[in-house]
């Protein structure tokens, strides 16, 4: 690709050319037939923006408060694994980029830099992500508290690892996950040529269920966000609140777990069932398929408090390290600001349900 990227999709094309195929496939990969990732992105394309004209938009304010922390925009770096496969400085560079842009950094428990290294590297507001296995989870949470992390992102859809055929085909060997040192072997082997599933077997608990959230709350004072929450039924969102979670992140795990589940934006906001179910008691956030500032605008209009950005941040890191992370975040912020101005919204509170039309609504209007 000639020239500098001008949008986050062009960062992916750049990274496809410079990153080893096995690592590009690892980051870009998704489960089985790979339907879900495409649908994550295309579902946004089917939502139309309805702008308001003749509005004074000389001043645009994108700042918001997420779990008590003011950020420059409704964007969080999603917790994603193994950043050192993208760049030698790994999650440390990602966190510095997030801090420079004044947004929240989500750190995966399968990070290649330790949570202590990330915490000491900059002044980013950091959330720690964990799946569930009691001894490992307890260790991670206690260390996170000691090192100034501000919240826990609890992943809910990993009783076992999704089937990513590119990793199997490439015989993907994951780097040691150093957060697990002293807890499990960090040099796990597999007779299939890939150690990714071997790691999963050591760190995931297939018995994880609702009652375990109460246990997690009993060992930490940090607020808990539940992620990969795709259930749209009223009772499920209500049950999450009753369990004491501080927020819900609707996500399909970046299309990396169960294939043929709905797009995050479709589940979470088209019918606004989760948003209505929580009744403003906790924030609802969106993860999955965000590639443009217009996507962020649509998610906010349909009820999201903020969005999480995963692969685009990884692509920025792989291309240019910390600078690339900042460029990707600033691109999305600039596009969101442009969208808000052209749609007649000066603040995030001005973005309402009336600013978007879903595919279902367009169909009903034609009837």
UniProtKB/TrEMBL annotation:
Any idea of its EC number?
Answer: 1.1.3.15
- Record domain FMN hydroxy acid dehydrogenase: where: 1-361
**Binding annotation for glyoxylate:** 253, 256
**Which top EC class is given?**
oxidoreductase
Write out the annotated subcellular location: Peroxisome
Q: Which GO terms describe its molecular function?
A: (S)-2-hydroxy-acid oxidase activity; FMN binding
Alphabetically, which GO biological process terms does the record hold?
A: defense response to bacterium; hydrogen peroxide biosynthetic process
Task: Name the domain of life this protein comes from.
Answer: Eukaryota
Give the record's keywords alphabetically. Answer: Flavoprotein, FMN, Oxidoreductase, Peroxisome
Q: Which GO terms describe its cellular component?
A: peroxisome
InterPro entries documented for this protein? Aldolase_TIM (IPR013785), Alpha-hydoxy_acid_DH_FMN (IPR012133), FMN-dep_DH (IPR000262), FMN_HAD (IPR037396), FMN_hydac_DH_AS (IPR008259)
- What SUPFAM superfamilies does this protein's entry cite? FMN-linked oxidoreductases (SSF51395)
Catalyzed reaction equations: a (2S)-2-hydroxycarboxylate + O2 = a 2-oxocarboxylate + H2O2; 2-hydroxyhexanoate + O2 = 2-oxohexanoate + H2O2; 2-hydroxyoctanoate + O2 = 2-oxooctanoate + H2O2
Q: What is this protein called?
A: (S)-2-hydroxy-acid oxidase
The organism named in the record is Capsicum annuum
Organismal lineage: Eukaryota, Viridiplantae, Streptophyta, Embryophyta, Tracheophyta
């Amino acid at each position: 690709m000639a020239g500098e990227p001008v949008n986050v999709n062009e960062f992916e094309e750049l990274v496809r050319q410079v990153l080893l195929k096995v690592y590009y496939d690892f980051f870009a990969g998704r489960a089985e037939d790979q339907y879900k990732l495409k649908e994550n992105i295309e579902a946004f394309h089917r939502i139309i923006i309805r702008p308001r004209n003749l509005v004074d938009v000389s001043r645009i304010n994108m700042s918001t408060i997420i779990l008590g922390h003011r950020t420059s925009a409704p964007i969080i770096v999603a917790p994603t694994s193994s950043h050192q496969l993208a760049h030698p400085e790994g999650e440390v560079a990602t966190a510095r980029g997030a801090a420079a842009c004044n947004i929240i950094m989500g750190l995966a428990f399968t990070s290649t830099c330790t949570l202590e290294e990330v915490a000491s590297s900059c002044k980013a507001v950091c959330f720690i992500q964990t799946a569930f296995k009691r001894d490992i989870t307890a260790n991670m949470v206690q260390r996170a508290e000691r090192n100034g992390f501000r919240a826990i992102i609890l992943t809910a859809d990993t009783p076992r690892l999704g089937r990513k055929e590119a990793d199997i085909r490439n015989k993907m060997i994951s780097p040691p996950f150093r957060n697990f040192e002293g807890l499990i072997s960090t040099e796990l082997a597999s007779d299939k040529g890939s150690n990714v599933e071997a790691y999963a077997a050591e760190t995931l608990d297939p018995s994880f269920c609702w009652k375990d959230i109460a246990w997690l709350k009993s060992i930490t004072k940090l607020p808990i966000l539940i992620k990969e929450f795709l259930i749209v039924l009223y009772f499920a969102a209500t049950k999450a609140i009753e369990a004491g979670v501080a927020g819900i992140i609707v996500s399909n795990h970046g299309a990396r777990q169960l294939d043929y589940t709905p797009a995050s934006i479709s589940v979470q906001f088209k019918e606004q069932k989760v948003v209505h179910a929580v009744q403003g008691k906790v924030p609802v956030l969106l993860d999955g398929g965000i590639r443009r500032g217009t996507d962020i605008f649509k998610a906010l209009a349909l009820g999201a408090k903020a969005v999480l950005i995963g692969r685009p941040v990884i692509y920025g890191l792989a291309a240019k390290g910390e600078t690339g992370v900042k460029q990707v975040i600033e691109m999305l912020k600039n596009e969101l600001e442009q969208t808000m101005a052209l749609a007649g919204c000066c603040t995030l509170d001005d973005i309402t349900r009336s600013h978007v039309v879903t595919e279902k609504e367009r169909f009903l209007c034609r009837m």
